[in-house]
Structure formats: C-alpha cells, structure tokens
Amino acid sequence: MAPDKSINERDKLQLQVSFHRAMNAGLLGTLFFGVLLLGFVVMHDTTKIVPPEVKRPYEIGSNYANKDYLLDMAGYVLGTVLTVTPETVDYNNKVILKMADPDGYAGLKTALDAAAMRLKQEQVTTIWISRKEEVSEQDKWVKVSGKLKTFIADKLTSEREKDYLVKFIITTSGRLYVSKIEEIVKRDPSANKPAADN
User: Fold this and answer.
1) What's the superkingdom here (predicted)?
2) Contact 96, 112 (CB under 8 A)
3) Are 60 and 69 in contact (CB under 8 A)?
4) Which CA distances in Å does 131 have to 112, 144, 151, 159, 185?
5) E strand map for 105-171
6) 177 DSSP β-pair partners
7) Closest by CA position to 60, among listed 75, 71, 74, 44
8) Distance between CA 81 and CA 83 in Å, rounded?
9) Given this model, what pLDDT does residue 10 score?
10) Among 169, 142, 131, residue whose Cα is nearest residue 68
11) Alpha-carbon span 190 to 135, nearest angstrom
12) Three-class SS of residue 145?
C-alpha cells in the first residue's frame, strides 16, 4: 500500500472515530437529560383520585396535597379519635396509629393510650361534630372547630365547643402521615383582667 494512501485511510478512520465519539457523547447527554426530566415529572406530577365515597377529586403529589384532601383527612382523623366508646377506642387508636408519622409515633401513641385509659375507667362515650374548618395547604395543617358531646351511661353530661389542630406530613412519594393531633386551648380573657379596686 502506498504511503499516501495509508495516510488518507488513517485520516478517514480517525474522522470516523471522532464522529462516533461525538455521537456517543451526544446520546449520553440526551439520556442523562431524559433521566433528569423523568425524575422532575415524577416528583412534581400530581395525581387526581376520586374514592367511591367522596364526590370531589383529590390532588396528591410530592410533598403536596390539595385543600380538599387535607380537610377530608382531618375530618376522618378527628372523627375516629373523638367519636369513641370504651369498646371502640382501642380499635380506633390502632387505625390512627397506622397513619402516624414514624418520628411522632411514640408521642401520639402515648396521648391516645392515656385518653383511652380515661375513657375506659370512667365509661365515657364521646361524639364529635365538626362545624368549621380552616386549612393551610402550604404548612399541611387543618384547624377544626366543633362540638364535643360527652355521655356517661347514655346520659349527656357535657356539650362543649372545642378547637383541634391536625398536622400532616406528606412524603416525596405523596404518602400522607398524621404528625400531630392537639386541642387548641383558648385562654379565658377574664383571667388576664386586673381585679377592680374597691
């Protein structure tokens, strides 16, 4: 083979190798961009679901749930925790603890167990009736105002207006956990007033 011909052949092969390297780099870049785009869509895409007993759609996504979902879940949680009898309280508490945030599980279990023990000892039945709700989608909490009726041996012993706060945690996969259930205790404005001088 003539030297000039072999040099031309070598140059052609080098051009082909350079072209294939550039194509491989381009394909690798496209693949990497596709993976990033897929990850973005998976993390930020919301899914609409309509459970059979609910008439409105919910939107749940990465660290996000819409107002309707938070309201309904808070109503379910409070109804389960506060509408109880001595016979149903343990089962209801187990249902809520399955929804508990792993980090706050111990505190929530302690509070629910203490309330259950009191209900059983005093043979108390309570019924919760929600009246008004306030929700924060950003902070994932719902404040619910309503009436708590207390019965002892089928006799109504008290009927009090109460406010409760239910806080949620939503994971990147869209799973909702209950992180806190607490009564909002209102301060008595008359307690802060100074006594009148005589």
Assistant:
1) Bacteria
2) yes
3) yes
4) 23, 7, 20, 14, 17
5) 124-136, 141-152, 155-170
6) 169
7) 44
8) 6
9) 79
10) 142
11) 29
12) strand
